Amino acid sequence: MLNASPFSYDKQAQRAALLQRQAANNQCPLAYVNLVGGQDELVFDGDSMLLDAAGNIVFRAEAFAAGVFIEEWDITTSP
Predict the structure, then answer these.
(1) Between the CA of residue 3 and those of 23, 36, 56, 74, what are the distances in Å?
(2) How far apart are CA 54 and CA 24, in angstroms?
(3) For residue 3, which phi and psi values (nearest 5 degrees)?
(4) Quick one: which of 16, 5, 1 has its CA closest to 46?
(5) 32 burial class (0-12, 13-18, 19+ CB within 10 angstroms)?
(6) Would the N or C end of the chain have less CB density within 10 A of its end CB?
(7) What does the pLDDT look like over 13-46, one tens digit per residue?
């Protein structure tokens, strides 16, 4: 899932909880990629992550840091 979700206080915790619920409820691994940087008065925090089909976060990129992250991820493992 590609996203451009602006930063706000406590959004990272809310986002992680939502993604964990969705991955677990659908029993489907999830890749969440968020924009990092700024545009006018908006700030984007990055905070991209990979979740397994059970809703566990298996990788989380550093917030507010641009980069290319390479992660081996076995999406065939069932919860």
Answers:
(1) 16, 10, 20, 23
(2) 5
(3) -150, 160
(4) 5
(5) buried
(6) N
(7) 999 999 999 999 999 999 999 888 888 888 888 8
Residues 6+ apart with CB under 8 A from 38: 44
- The pLDDT-based confidence of 77 (bands split at 50, 70, 90) is low
3-state secondary structure labels for all residues of the chain:
CEECCECCCCHHHHHHHHHHHHHHHHCCCEEEEECEEEECCEEEECCCEEECCCCCEEEECCCCCCCCCCCCCCCCCCC
Six token digits for residue 61:
């990129």
Q: What is the pTM of this model?
A: 0.82
**CA–CA gap between residue 52 and residue 20 (Å, rounded):** 9
